[in-house]
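Appendix C reproduces, verbatim, an entry submitted by the partner laboratory led by Prof. M.T., so that reviewers can inspect both the input and the predicted structure.
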Amino acid sequence: MTATAGPAGRLLLLDSASLYFRAFFGVPDSVRAPDGTPVNAVRGLVEMIARLVADRHPTRLVACWDDDWRPAFRVEAVPSYKAHRVAREVPGTTGVEEVPDALTAQVPVIVDVLAALGIPRLGAPGYEADDVIGTLVAREAARPAGERAAVDVVTGDRDLFQLVDDDVPVRVLYPVKGVKDLLVVDQQVLQERYGVATGRAYADMAVLRGDPSDGLPGVPGIGEKTAAALLRRYGTLEGVLAARDAGDRGLTATQRTRLTDAADYLAVAPRVVTVAPDAPVDDVDDHLPTVPADPDALVALAERWGLASSVRRLVDVLTAEGGRGDG
């Protein structure tokens, strides 16, 4: 399903780490460079981008980057945030993420390939890729309607469902089985699958429900269905908490007790769950490149890392999109 592009085309935002992690675990590690170095994540990501561009026809494209995988402001609010993923404590930081060595070695190659292709890679000091995406979405939403692109966010992270907004429009393309099988998440899908009508409500539900994969405890005893039901009744997390404080009869005694016992968590969790709309993200030319920015460097990288066929396919797709000329 490919919705009509906005008046200013289509902006495709890649949650880069989410995608190259999926590529690393989804493409066999037998995919190697001539010198034997694994390049499965690099090849997988290049092929993902080729498929996405061919299928989604973006006019703009950004690879969003984790400059900080575990931002201090989130850890200060909820110390358990991603704590289980810390491989090594480093004084003055929030720790080094546990990443397979074979993947760590491929990340600089991904950086070089994106640069040679001319695909902008954007991060922000002290922020995650989620925040870069949230900021770029907020900037697009702030444009006059006639100058606004439709936004597709490609991620395997459900946290970004909070950005879904039919009015902009913003959709999330969620890989089910690679990018050949994408769940296109709009507000109807949020309603059908999670019982919440907006991206904002999804974020509030995530606060109440918690997320063990991110080390967020949630409110003990309040799962996804109960959280969604409370939000349907009271509209927002603030509405739920106001009902708690007012002793509203729509809450059971047990629910009021659970929400009261979790008051400290609920006071800070929204800052952790909500993606930043105002991270210090640079302005760049994000128009879809139709020719490589550095053809010689791209040829050298393709030869060195055994990526010739994948890179050629992506370059061919980008060239074809440039020839479409219709956004």
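The longest strand covers residues 10-15. Additional entries are available on request from the coordinating office.
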